[in-house]
Design a protein that fits this description.
Mean pLDDT: 96
CATH class: Mainly Beta
CATH topology: Tumour Suppressor Smad4
Radius of gyration: 25 Å
Distance between the termini: 5 Å
Number of helices: 0
Number of domains: 1
Structural class: mainly beta
Helix content: under 10%
Number of strands: 13
């Protein structure tokens, strides 16, 4: 049997591939910018190009129920309870062509609210299934993960 999930129960780290997109400006060559009287090039100017890259987002968080039912002094989690989550670009955006990053979307970190999507198949309170360790969470970025911590002395099946 799994322990019940409550306020602060952590979710397993999840990764969203390609969540962050960034543009790099790099020198792709040079062009002649001045000539002598014989038509020979005497000066060069750089030519710049851009390339778009992407990286993932590493998501962490915890169950944040608003329940009036308590376990071990904490609000009990249920299926549909919110999860408060944070994400960071992982690995962080970095130039791939020796240039400079000129834009990043949606950024390098953020937060949002996910939701407990599965829990106990046999224990309900007020018609709601109790969230449990091992229960599924759908993150605010659409990935699926599980609840990894909770009560060590209140169990549900």
């Amino acid at each position: 049997m799994a322990g019940a999930a409550y306020n602060g129960s952590t979710i397993q780290q999840s990764n969203k591939s390609g969540h962050v997109s960034y543009v790099e400006r790099y020198q792709s060559g040079s062009t002649c910018s001045s000539w002598d009287i014989n038509g020979n090039c005497t000066g060069y100017s750089p030519v710049y190009s851009t390339a778009t890259h992407s990286t993932g987002a590493r998501i962490t968080g915890a169950v944040q129920p608003t329940s009036t039912v308590y376990v071990n002094g904490q609000p009990l989690g249920f299926v549909s309870s919110p999860t408060q989550e944070q994400w960071v670009a992982d690995p962080p955006p970095s130039p791939q062509m020796g240039g400079t990053i000129i834009s990043i979307s949606p950024g390098t970190s953020g937060n949002g609210v996910g939701q407990v999507s599965s829990g106990s198949s046999g224990v309900f309170v007020g018609g709601k299934a109790i969230a449990s360790i091992g229960g599924t969470v759908t993150t605010h970025l659409g990935t699926s993960t599980t609840i990894t911590s909770g009560s060590s002395n209140v169990f549900v099946n």
